[in-house]
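Field reference: sequence -> structure
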Amino acid sequence: MCQQLQVSRSGFYAWRGRSPSRHAVRDRELLGQIERVFEENEERYGSPRVFKQLQQEGVRTARKRVARLMRENGLKARTTFFYRRAPGLGRRLTTIPNRRLALARPTAPDQHWAGDVTYIRLGRQWRYLSVVLDLYSRRVIGWAMGKRRSADLTRAALAMALRRRNPAPNAIFHTDRGSEYRCETLHQLLTKRQMLPSVNRPMRCTDNAEVESFFRTIKGELIHGARFGSEELLYREVGSYIRDYYNRTRLHSSLGYRSPEHYESMAA
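Structure field:
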């Protein structure tokens, strides 16, 4: 082997008997910490979030070192995919403007909310998930799941948010232009709580980018590749993900790598 590799036998035995370098020892220790963070977050974190969590725990290292060790050891975050929205739902224009365009970013919780609906496969059927986010902290403050994409579903998500929170007068509730957000009962609820409706501009799904980003995240980290044996299990897993992981634990790059709950606590 030494002859094939063109090294001396004495050099090979000297290398074999040499103690690992401090750099190699530190790599091995750091890899253990990386694997712990990676597994605690159920393989959802890529190197930027692993690095930030280690940094918050007081571990001193470099971002590129974390990325190298994860790459060399096959630690890759669960892939996130964009899902096309459910087709075939009628859209109708309204006179409601996009109020977000004229407003500065929220400076505290319960100033700007946003809602939307997406679909999740359950066997050969679909279930629909409606959510309400607080745009200050990206926290999911209301959600509902059902068999139909309907006004009742979106109203249920909004009603949950209003039970839990106390929005400021003239706070906005921003959505897309779907008919499920144009129902009279939902707007009566907004009026009762002194909230103002706001909608996307036509053909501008990026006007509601924060909720679209959440749907991309939950599908990539929880739904994609998973098999749910029952509706009850799907409902329980979605609720646990939103309540225990996304809101309380998951580090958000847009929040300075803090969780929504932590970010809101800083404003208290």
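Note: The chain has a mean pLDDT of 88.
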